[in-house]
Inverse folding.
């Protein structure tokens, strides 16, 4: 019973986060019309109305999920427990942290205020999704990471593509270490070093501490998805993992600039990457990065789960013009049969 209530709480938190990410995506879509000659005024953010709508979505989903669990036979004595946990859950979301300028995940998605400047300490999905949300709402965002990659479990090319994509959205400080926090009445001053050099002290209206745990060991069975702008997805073996394995493999990268749909959507920085076992031609790893990458990721998951070969993928109908056909083209490049792009030798 306890595990079921905890799962409901996790699910409702995800609903809140993804509603915020959808809002951020909508803002970016409007801004993205500028290169096409269409201009819009800057969005007006009613934070109180946004919070109210998020609370409604959470409550509706919580009631729906409660009904699901009840229908599965988890009814005994649980009505009062669910109500208590629901109240506790919302209190956890909306109660400020010990220091109102230091946020963890629940404080951040509660939208206490929109900072002019937000510092994010740490890498991973939570860090990037919170950065995506607040940057869209108008915050200037700096991200401090201990290494060189915002997604340490993924390959360098995925990280490089992502960081090139977002360089106009965030300032990423690699190989960083925070050396001091100094608090004033309304800001936090951070002292930090990056690449062994001291950075100028900087004042922030809020600091988000990312709590992501490395998930590299789970990538073979659990999909990786950062619903950021752009979205990053992966399932299966990575090149990092294969470097220490005995498997024979080949990597195919399909830049989205080759796709008509990506060009019309001004979405050419994206990438689809597939890894095939060259002994049996089975897809053993794959994913993509780019706006709406999550909408086409399902085929990669299906192919890996069912041990599809490059030939299976190449003989599957893919609509044109879509981002979806990047998977088809990557398989055809592996087979040497592509006609729309150059085949690898």
């Amino acid at each position: 019973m306890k595990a079921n209530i905890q799962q409901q709480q996790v699910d409702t938190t995800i609903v809140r986060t993804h509603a915020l990410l959808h809002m951020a995506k909508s803002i970016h879509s409007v801004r993205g019309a500028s290169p096409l000659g269409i201009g819009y005024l800057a969005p007006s953010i009613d934070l109180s109305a946004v919070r109210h709508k998020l609370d409604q979505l959470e409550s509706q989903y919580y009631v729906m999920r409660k009904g699901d669990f009840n229908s599965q036979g988890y009814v005994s004595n649980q009505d009062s427990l669910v109500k208590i946990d629901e109240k506790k859950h919302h209190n956890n979301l909306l109660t400020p942290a010990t220091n109102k300028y230091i946020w963890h995940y629940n404080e951040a998605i509660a939208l206490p205020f929109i900072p002019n400047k937000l510092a994010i300490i740490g890498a991973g999905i939570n860090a990037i999704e919170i950065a995506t949300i607040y940057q869209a709402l108008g915050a200037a965002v700096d991200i401090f990471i201990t290494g060189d990659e915002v997604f340490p479990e993924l390959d360098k090319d995925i990280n490089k593509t992502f960081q090139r994509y977002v360089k106009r959205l965030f300032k990423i400080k690699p190989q960083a270490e925070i050396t001091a926090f100094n608090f004033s009445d309304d800001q936090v001053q951070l002292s930090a070093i990056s690449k062994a050099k001291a950075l100028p002290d900087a004042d922030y209206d809020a600091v988000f501490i990312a709590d992501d745990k490395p998930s590299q060991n789970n990538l073979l069975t659990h999909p990786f998805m950062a619903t950021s702008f752009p979205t990053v997805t992966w399932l299966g073996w990575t090149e990092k993992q294969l470097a220490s394995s005995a498997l024979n493999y080949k990597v195919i990268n399909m830049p989205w600039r080759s796709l008509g749909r990506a060009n019309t959507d001004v979405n050419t920085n994206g990438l689809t990457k597939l890894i095939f076992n060259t002994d049996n031609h089975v897809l053993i790893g794959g994913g993509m990065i780019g706006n709406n990458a999550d909408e086409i990721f399902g085929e990669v998951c299906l192919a890996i789960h069912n041990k599809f070969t490059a030939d299976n993928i190449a003989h599957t109908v893919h609509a044109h013009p879509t981002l979806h056909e990047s998977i088809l083209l990557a398989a055809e490049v592996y087979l040497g049969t592509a006609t729309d792009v150059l085949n690898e030798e």
In short: Residues 1-9, 69-97 have pLDDT under 50 and may be disordered. Residues 2-31 form the longest helix (30 residues).
